[in-house]
Hints:
Layout: H1 2-27, H2 36-43, H3 47-71, H4 76-103, H5 136-157, H6 159-180, H7 183-202, H8 204-213, H9 217-229, H10 235-256, H11 260-267, H12 269-276, H13 278-288, H14 297-333
Helix pairs in contact: 1-2, 1-3, 1-11, 1-12, 1-13, 3-5, 3-7, 3-10, 4-5, 4-13, 4-14, 5-6, 5-7, 6-7, 6-10, 7-10, 9-10, 13-14
Protein name: Acyltransferase
Keywords: Acyltransferase, Membrane, Transferase, Transmembrane, Transmembrane helix
GO molecular function, one term: acyltransferase activity
Amino acid sequence: MQGSRVAAFDGWRAVCILMVILGHLAEYSSVRGDGPLESVISAYALLRVQIFFVLCGYLTGCSLQREGRRGGRVHVMRFYVRRFMRVVPPLLVFVAAIVLMARQGLIDPEAVGVYRAIFYVCNVRDCGGYVGGHLWTLSAQEQFYILAPFLFIFYRIAPSRTTLALATFPLFVAAWVLATRSPLSLVALQFVPLAVGLLCAFYRDDLWRRCAEAPASSLAVAALLILVIYPAEGPLAVVARAVLVPGLIAFMLAKSATVAPVNRFLSARPVAVIGRASYSIYLWQQLATYPFEGAGYAFYIGSLGLCIFAGVLSYALFERGLARLSDRAQAWLGEPGPVFGWRPRATAAALPAREQAH
């Protein structure tokens, strides 16, 4: 069952990245329109981000749980090494290519601002216009991951307090957004689905048991509730999107692995392969959907096909190699100190399972 869950989660990654591509084509590309389809896609634009954030928070929490159970302690430095090797090298390649293209006049010159992405500030600063517009999600993730291992350590010390803090965080943020609409409150709102995913990881055994006991029809009910809540307007809708929707998404993610037809689709090899390569595809799809003057449907079909192929190739040849290099770097760090200290050593250590979140 555990293998099915991982494959299903890869499938959800694929679903999210395909939703991103469809949304960007409909909203920003040269073939965009203003019909009812585009209106529907726009109304659910942030849903794909929430799904991905809940999944990432959950998988990150599971990674920390595995490490804590195996060695009794969480090695914070190892966690940051994994994140660095997973995220930074592909990002640097993307940023360098975009800056070069902008300086050569192939795309809008303002795209040079994409360099700000390496500082993870794209959710508070412009990062090169459209070409870097998607990187706000990566910035929000990495900002949250600064705190994630410390939240996990605090959970091991005081589980009830951590649970209470994470459970009430969405309601607090929703109230803050309604009261102020300040930039800081809107940034905090981005952390809510990540926090919900992390909280679900703390109680994953109970979550999976309850989801397995729920009827298959509950998956459709959860999806329908999300579709009804998401485009609604008003204060109650803000609260529902912040508090209720991430919980419904977490239930859907878990329940989908227990409903055979859904699990078979999500676990299918082509879908899972796209999911595993989703980070590279995520980076480059922004260029593949760029509103080049005169570009038509044939151009975008070709560019997106090339983007997906290049993403899969990048995962196989580049990202997997980085993961092996990350393993060596983690072995060098040695075992953690009393809480999260580290000391280098020459011999390789048994390593925790690789992190599977983006």
